Amino acid sequence: MKNKRRQFLKQTALSALGAGGMLKGLAGISEQIFSNSKMERGNPDDSHLSVIGLYGDWAAGLHENTLPSFSFRREGWKNVDKWRPVASKRVKERMSIPDIGKAPRLTVIKQFVYDGLHIQELSWQLPYGRATEALLLKPENVTGKLPAILAFHDHGGNKYFGTRKITKTSDQQHPLMIAHQKEYYEGFAWANEIARRGYVVLVPDAFPFASRRVMIKDVPQFMRNGLDDSDPENPTNINAYNQWAGQHEHTMAKSLFCAGTTWPGVFFAEDKIALDILCARDDVDRDRIGCAGLSGGGMRTVFMAGLDERIKCAIPVGFMTTWKDFLLNKSINHTWMVYVPLLPVELDFPEILALRAPLPSLVLNDEDDDLYTMPEMQRADKILNEVYRKAGHEDHYKCSFHPGPHKFDKKMQKEAFDWFDRWLKQ
């Protein structure tokens, strides 16, 4: 299975835009341009090469021996509380977060009980696009205010699905979601699992996934590649849509740049609305809110938890490395959704999460994750350790490396849920 997946990834990378592809094997990455880095770096003679050829060493060397200008690790910064607002302001400026207004009116589409959980199907209308759909899960027959989790779904090369990737609302799941949860979550709907521990869990569809996806009928005819939006739940049509959406990701990213914003900026604006909605609930203790997600969800966790202090406990899973790793080795493996122009000279990627110091953070990595190199994952851990230590709360940060490929399996979920319990149930 693994060898077939790697061969598929290699063929997809070589064919680039022409192939598209669902890239079933890697959660949270762009569909059509990936290659398996382990396979391509398997030859020791390739270890010094970069994904941009001879330009790699030059580009990496532009700021190689200089700490980023807004880094708390610089000698000029002594007090984390004075550093945080200055650095956060700069990150938000670089992200060019769009103003999308306040939390809109919430609609409860449906509510029911399943497998011990009270579940609500929710929606809200932002000033643009179709309504955002979300799921709210909490233990059945529990009263009073509970701690809460803002749960982010992964990317998975699959924009057709969103909340369904990490939830289960009936015994009848879509077969693609059964396979998805088996591959990345050891068969568990992790949002359900954490809700059972006594949390209110909100899972929104991300931009542009599921309810927020770009519909074929909404783009010009010449872009549709013969596709339409009929019979959408058919697996063949879903795969065809995901191939199309992978090719469209470049267009979306470039268009957002032209609009004066960034993909992380749009993510943050929409995720902040979801957090506003969660905090406004009568059954939520807004002083005990956590955030987590795998892969693309881990990336969103980094930005949300780094920039919004309402997140009291954060767990990015399968998304922690350095800008250098992206530059030299892994930009080919990742979605356009990651990048913030100019920010790398001001903060390294781990330092976005470090903006929340000393609030507790747990980073979960996989030792055989093809999306990152081990040296740069370890360097990211070192950076976060240094920031938390300098902030005087080294014990509020933890990083774990688990065996295996890109995933959030049962053992990792237990560690994550225990970390939430430690910090949100005191």
How would the blueprint of this fold be written?
Blueprint lengths: L1 H14 L21 H4 L14 H7 L18 H16 L10 E9 L2 E8 L7 E8 L6 E7 L22 H11 L4 H7 L3 E5 L30 H24 L4 H17 L4 E11 L1 H12 L5 E5 L5 H8 L18 H6 L6 E6 L7 H17 L6 E6 L7 H15 L2
Parallel strand pairs: 4-5, 4-6, 6-7, 7-8, 8-9
Antiparallel strand pairs: 1-2, 2-3, 3-5
Structure notes:
It is a single chain. The chain has 426 residues and is of the alpha/beta class. It has a single domain (1-426), classed as Alpha/Beta hydrolase fold, catalytic domain (Rossmann fold), CATH 3.40.50. The chain is 37% helix and 15% strand. It has 13 helices and nine strands. A nine-stranded mixed β-sheet has the order 1-2-3-5-4-6-7-8-9, with helices on both faces. A hairpin with a 2-residue loop joins β1 and β2 (117-124). The longest helix has 24 residues, at 235-258.
- Largest sheet strand order: 1-2-3-5-4-6-7-8-9
Instruction: Give the helix proportion (percent range).
Output: 25-40%
For the record, the CATH class is Alpha Beta
Number of strands: 9
What overall form do the CA principal axes indicate? globular
